[in-house]
Amino acid sequence: MTAFFHTPKRRITEILAVLATAAGKFIFMDNRAWRLPFILFAILAWTGYIIYRSVSVPGILAYWGFRKDNFRKVCRMLLAPGIMAIAAFFIIGGLQGTILLHWHIIPVLVLYPLWGTIQQLLLIALITGNLQDMEGQRLSKQVIVLVAAVLFALVHYPYGWLMAGTFFLALAYGFVYLQARNLFVLGLFHGWLGGLFYYTVLGRDAFAETFGVLFRIKS
Distance between CA 119 and CA 74 in Å, rounded? Predict the structure, then answer.
């Protein structure tokens, strides 16, 4: 069934496209500070690809993890890791004195899950899923998840705390995804945990950093 959705060539092409997107993050978000334009472009470009593939290959959305039937099951699987992560965020933030209480966190928690879902599609579905289902591949599930987690961490270089946080969360996301694919839940957890991470451990205003140019907000 998985071969019906993807040929080995397409799987490799998708993985290369993910790596190109990651490279674009360093070029446009980090070096040129085009954070919002890059995020919008990435969301639109990959949404276009999702629509194109869903029209040409019926059933691929559920294969990727855009499904509702196991929503509660996957939520329960991530609930304990999520609670432990939040507790760790506030403990670390309290010790560092980096907890930033600001109303800006509200729109971040509302909007970030959309960007988080795209990131989960790229790093978890198109990397982990394609590596697992690649015809003739001999990698174990543990190695596949580790590869995706390392890549997820490297994308957030050079921020040490961010790299550590994304690495450990990606390990949980990867194993959960290979058991029960649901990108809606992963995107939701990614958005909420990521938003809280910025305002606790990092002490950074993610809303100002992203939308500051539009609303003339200083980060």
Answer: 18
